[in-house]
Amino acid sequence: MTGPTTTIRSTGTVVGSWRATWLVIEGLWTWYRRSWRATVVSSVLQPVLMLLALGFGFGSQVQPGDATGGLRYVAYLAPALLVSGAIQNAGGESTYPVLSAFKWQKTYWGVVATPISPGQLLSGQLLWIALRLLGSGAVYLAIAALFGAVTGPGVLLSLLFAVLAGMAFCAPVVAFSASRDDDGQGFAGLFRFVVMPMTLFAGTFFPISQLPAWVRPLAWLTPVWHGNELARGAAFGTLRPLATLGHVGYLVALLVAGALLACRLFRRRLAV
Amino acid sequence: MSTVDHPLVTATGLAKRFGDFEAVRGIDVEVNRGEAFGFLGPNGAGKSSTMRMVAAVSPRTGGDLRVFGLDPDVDGPRIRARLGVCPQQDTLDNELTVRQNLQVYGRYFGLSRARVRERATELLEFAQLTDRADDQVEPLSGGMKRRLTIARSLVNEPDLLLLDEPTTGLDPQARHLLWDRLFRLKQSGVTLIITTHYMDEAEQLCDRLVVMDQGRIAAEGSPAELIGRYSTREVLELRFVPGGQEAVLPDVVDLAERVEVLPDRLLLYTEDGEGALAAAHNRGVRPISSLVRRSSLEDVFLRLTGRSLVD
InterPro entries under this entry (chain A) (predicted)? Predict the structure, then answer.
């Protein structure tokens, strides 16, 4: 039973869920339009520098062989850098900006005082990060193509897999950030002990078959390894249906579990 | 012509618990259209918790609450669409411009781009921020940020504006400017709910108020009614070197209806302040200074919540 409502004079209305999500993205885009320059170095330049230094520089000393699928090292590396770039960016976008919106600028509290709900706010934030990953990845790909490091149009599919891997990492990290009330100390550990080893050892620069057998299962847990398998498979046309399904399934599971947990934590923190 | 309008807010036995802590312990409140209604009380009295429940962002743990006749647990978004909220701490996006803060916020209420542009211009004028429209928010003064927060809360032309300690932390100039803006809103018919621990603010702005203490309502009425009910017409303040006030207490205690002992002075509540002062002098009481004044809400507050302001 809802009682009698009072005369409405306000111009505010409740927007649908999709539109609410979109409006959150629009707000973040307004910020990005002002501040994108500051983000270019970390989001685009870093993978390009890696490609130049390790792909071309170091790679000039590497013989194409079984480990590189018979490809030049730079071509072997290019799709994987798409994945590690997405992971790095996902880490950056889902840590400090999220904590700040809860704790320092408190902008999330501003948003949920409007008809927009915590769940819609979270969807907007996640989709925004996905769009960022897509944009940065596309720019990296264009540059990689200019340098001749790209093997064919399959890399466009690699880009989508890289975004999926990035989001599979992003969603749980957003949940982690939503649970923090420190000044970001927790993030230092995340970058040192999760992001960094993942980037170095989960099949980006060399196949994980080179790792000691007991370390390999750790690599299997990372979204980086699954992303690398998919991105390389798409770029080189070597995707096998069952393996693809497995990798995608694992990444989607991480993404969904992370998003559900984040949603709980957003509600718990913003609606108390 | 006038239609019978239901109260904008009705709370019955409204309660809020956080774990073992009871922030709000069953309060009854009714706020009518066009009123400026105040929650007055020391920090921790439960004012902000009440405000967050009315703002439909914090689910109640007991009792009943209707805002615009709707249940916040069921119709939160519909309620929030018609509310303006000025929180205790600014939630502005410091990296956007003043104007962008207004426009982005307006969009969350489903307003069109054209409408938010128009509205932003009006509100910049109202908040006297037109000169700073395209500056970033970060370097603005506290007073300007508060004005922007209030302007932002008006973007949807709310039926009810919630102001949680709107002037805390501002200098006197900034407070007066803000009060002036709030007066104008009141004049234009916006219903206001204000929490504050500043008595002068409550006296300036509120038609009706409740004094909250430890999660309960200690008293309710207009500022004048409360003063009439809980205090005397005049107050004689006798100031002593700290400690000295205790010594003379026995000499003056029968000169007033009630005496409050503050760290550096005695407050004598009486209908005739000058008479009490003369009588004290005759008994040889020699304060450092004395003052006769009319009772204010502050006196009501001291009486109802114990003399110390918990800060």
Answer: ABC2_TM, ABC2_TM_bact-type, ABC_2_transport, Nod_factor_ABC_transporter
